[in-house]
Design a protein that fits this description.
Oligomer: single chain
Number of helices: 34
Shape: globular
CATH superfamily of one domain: Glycogen Phosphorylase B
CATH class of one domain: Alpha Beta
Radius of gyration: 27 Å
Strand content: 15-25%
Helix content: 40-55%
Structural class: alpha/beta
Largest sheet: 9 strands, mixed
Strand order of the largest sheet: 7-10-11-4-1-12-13-17-18
């Protein structure tokens, strides 16, 4: 089979008939030989698997070639460790990057099969929760597109994140069964198996004057590798995403089974498999917390054993590890890599402690994603003593040297030593995973300019004082191939016409749009592309919700996980106030608006789930009030995932980025929505600041307090009665929610929300309400002057090139990984 050649035909240009014939033959061959079906008997699922396998064959050529070339050249490799990879559907993504969409679409059409119908057969690989996991997926795409030899490491969750179903307005969670029909993209590697140990004790022996630690574990779990090829743009380079599945070395105890204890005979297998059953088990219980730590160590240990073995196979010795390998820790979840790499070097390969520490720090780097202290994981020392006794010893030794350095920097300052210690001694001794990752890494990066500066001033201020220069900034980015070319083909076609085909390879060419921003004919084409996408979203809303929405209305979108700091509550509170204003003045010229929410609340996050219920209850009242008609609709789309985002984002007119200032590390939804022509309404938080700087202050709506203002107000107290007294609209909206106007049959349902808005306004929902409401009315005014709105929308697209994840990865490669691009 020849290697694939990339060819993206111009709009309207016919595809190569020979290529079509070859693909048809390949699909039919896979259908017969791999699926075992004749065309006349094949189901749609059969056609999808046969087509995916035919495409996979063409990817594998480049994958194997790229792997061999990078090893032959002795190139440095990047290993990206992440507990989440929200990769979504791979079928059309791979087709797009290989330049084969038109060829496959034509071939399938000749066979009587629709490519876009087949796409629906592929489940979303929901191996992540939100922005963290989607960022990892974008970075994998960019590393492949920039031909950086890399491998992603994570867990092959059997069920991924839960499937969200809304029943009577409440979120309910069900298993996300994404592997029911198998996964045509992965290659199981049964020969790649590593042993991961837990529990037991540590024996120390003297070996010629050297203390040698021998870990005698009580439990062993096997990690089995599954590889998924990640193809880069134009199919020129392919990397692997290696996910680990857990199993027991002794899956069935026959002696126990033969006694009739059938469940007990497979208990060890069940305990091992629990590690990869589900992403983020509920950590309210002790068992849930233990399982979470087992997950983290399981994937860290397997990944480090694997990369060390790969390095030894290529280089023969470990002293060069930092010169040949860069390990990026995506958030605190892989922080155990610091202790595990030290264990491998010192215990298994007999390195002296100081040399092993230099290698570890030079090899590892850590991305921080949050300023919330509660999100910087900590674990009770007791659980480490029980599950990872050798690692606790290593952490204690790292901490001893670290605290000695702190004493040199600030002699006699006990508070400083307590602040930087890897062990938190307050309220029960706990291991601080953020501090461990910081101390064990040569670079620590934030994910937006504001976030990186706040890291230095808040959560890591003392560590920054001790290790000056380690913190750097790498503002997040998104892959335009997924979030523009694939998600928005109508806009992409228009960009190719106006900016030239070079825009597909070089996002900076988007700047050519600026000259068209005020051109009325171009504006009409731009609006036509947006309207096409809005019709598609309106159709989806109709199918899912049995609700008719007008594509001509302003589509106001907030899509992100449900969390108090992201302030979906502020958005729905404004919807209540707007609803009341429309009822008061039904004859006023209101701008028709559809408020669209989507996102999941963590299963144990009761208040976030109550906010979802409030949104749905408000929707029930507003959408069924004939006095409001089509002037306001509220929609909550359940089970938000990558594929749903690909439909919502191109259709959005307004992007809600309204987190409490100082609390959002970056955000990437803000980038995706602006790239697709949505205007942002937002606080000066996270990457909103950089979006404003690039698109221009006139083309974004900024409101609310800034981070410093939030800190000042919090110090003054959380009582919001002062701002409520001065805002009639706010007071009326809160009173309506608290009095049960949106919870008929259970008037007290939302009393806790009303109470928090009045007296516990930690996230500044009430404090920012008036500013937000005024900014929304400014949005209404802008919408009524459509040429000006369209111009701002075009300029958002034209000025978003900097937010490509290719730019972000280049910065990582140059400043952190020391990898040529």
């Amino acid at each position: 089979m020849p290697e694939p050649s990339f060819h993206l035909p111009a709009p309207g240009q016919p595809v190569d008939e020979l290529a079509v014939a070859e693909i048809k033959g390949a699909i039919l061959a896979k259908l017969r030989l791999a699926i075992g079906k004749e065309a006349g008997m094949a189901t749609r699922q059969d056609w999808y698997h046969a087509t995916a396998l035919a495409l996979r064959d063409r990817i594998v050529h480049r994958w194997l070639t790229a792997e061999k070339e990078s090893y032959d050249a002795g190139r440095k490799r990047v290993y990206y460790l992440s507990l989440e990879f929200l990769i979504g559907r791979l079928f059309t993504d791979a087709l797009n990057n290989m330049g084969l969409i038109k060829v496959f679409e034509t071939a399938l059409g000749d066979l009587g099969v629709g490519l876009w119908e087949l796409r629906k057969c592929e489940p979303d690989a929901a191996l992540g929760n939100g922005g963290l996991g989607r960022l990892a997926a974008c970075f994998m795409d960019s590393m492949a597109s920039l031909a950086i030899p890399a491998m992603g490491y994570g867990i092959r969750y059997d069920f991924g994140l839960f499937r969200q179903v809304i029943v009577d307005g409440w979120q309910q969670e069900y298993p996300d069964v994404w592997l029911n029909f198998g996964n045509p993209w992965e290659f199981q590697r049964p020969e790649v198996v590593y042993h991961v140990h837990f529990g037991g004790g540590v024996e120390h022996v003297d070996d010629k004057g050297r203390d040698v630690a021998i870990w005698h574990p009580a439990e062993t779990v096997q990690a089995v590798a599954y590889d998924t090829p990640i193809v880069g743009w134009r199919g020129q380079h392919v990397n692997a995403l290696r996910l680990w599945s857990a199993r027991s070395p002794d899956p069935l105890k026959l002696d126990v089974f033969n006694t009739g204890d059938y469940l007990g005979a497979s208990a060890e297998e069940s305990r091992a498999e629990a590690i990869c059953k589900f992403l983020y088990p509920n950590d309210e219980s002790a068992a849930g917390r233990e399982l979470r730590l087992r997950q983290e160590y399981f994937f860290v240990s397997a990944s480090l054993q694997d990369l060390v073995q790969r390095h030894l196979g290529a280089d023969g010795q470990l002293r060069s590890l930092a010169q040949k390998a860069a390990l990026q820790l995506n958030d605190t979840h892989p922080s155990l890599a610091v202790a595990e790499l030290m264990r491998i070097l010192v215990d298994l390969h007999n390195f002296r402690w100081d040399e092993a520490w230099k290698i570890t720090v030079a090899t590892l780097s850590y991305t921080n994603h949050t300023l919330l202290p509660e999100a910087l994981e900590t674990w009770p020392v007791e659980i480490f003593e029980r599950l990872l006794p050798r690692h606790l010893e290593i952490i204690y030794r790292i901490n001893a040297a670290h605290l000695a350095q702190a004493e040199v920097r600030c002699p006699g300052d006990i508070d400083f030593r307590a602040a930087v210690s890897l062990i938190d001694e307050k309220g029960g001794r706990r291991v601080r995973m953020g501090q461990l990752a910081f101390v064990g890494s040569h670079r620590i990066n934030g994910v937006s300019a504001m976030h990186s500066e706040l890291m230095k001033e808040t959560v890591f201020s003392d560590l920054n004082h001790l290790y000056a220069g380690r913190i750097t900034n790498k503002t997040n980015g998104i892959t335009f191939r997924r979030w523009l070319m694939l998600a928005n083909p109508k806009l992409t076609e228009l960009l190719r016409e106006s900016c030239g085909d070079a825009v597909l390879d070089d996002p900076s060419k988007l700047a050519y749009l600026e000259s068209y921003a005020s051109d009325s004919a171009f504006q009409q084409k731009f609006r036509s592309a947006k309207h096409h996408n809005k019709v598609a979203l309106a159709r989806l809303i109709g199918e899912r919700q049995n609700m008719k929405v007008d594509p001509g209305a302003l589509f106001d979108v907030q899509i992100k996980r449900i969390h108090e700091y992201k302030r979906q509550l502020l958005n729905i509170l404004e919807a209540v106030a707007l609803y009341q204003a429309i009822k008061d003045q039904p004859n006023r010229d209101w701008v028709p608006r559809v408020k669209i929410f989507a996102g999941k609340a963590a299963a144990s996050y009761r208040y976030a789930k109550l906010i979802i219920k409030l949104i749905n209850d408000v929707a029930d009242v507003v959408n069924n009030d004939p006095a409001v008609d089509d002037r306001l609709k509220v929609v909550f789309l359940d089970d938000y995932n990558v594929s749903l985002a690909e439909t919502i984002i191109p259709a959005a007119d307004l992007s809600e980025q309204i987190s409490t200032a100082g609390m959002e590390a970056s955000g990437t939804g803000n980038m995706k929505l602006a790239l697709n022509g949505a205007l942002t309404i937002g606080t000066l938080d996270g990457a909103n600041i950089e979006v404003r700087d690039h698109v221009g202050a006139d083309n974004i709506a900024i409101f609310g307090m800034e981070a410093d203002d939030v800190m000042v107000r919090r110090k003054q107290g959380l009582d919001a009665t002062d701002v409520i007294r001065s805002s009639a609209a706010l007071a009326r909206a809160i009173n309506a929610i608290g009095a049960g106007e949106f919870s008929r049959g259970e008037p007290a349902r939302f009393e806790s929300i009303a109470h928090a808005l009045r007296y516990l306004d930690h996230y500044m929902v009430s404090a920012d309400f008036d500013s937000y409401y005024e900014a929304q009315r400014g949005i209404d005014a802008r919408w009524q002057v459509m040429p000006a709105w369209t111009r701002a929308s075009i300029l958002n697209v034209a000025r978003m090139a900097w937010f490509s994840s290719d730019r972000t990865i280049r910065e990582y490669a140059e400043d952190i990984w020391n990898v040529p691009v």
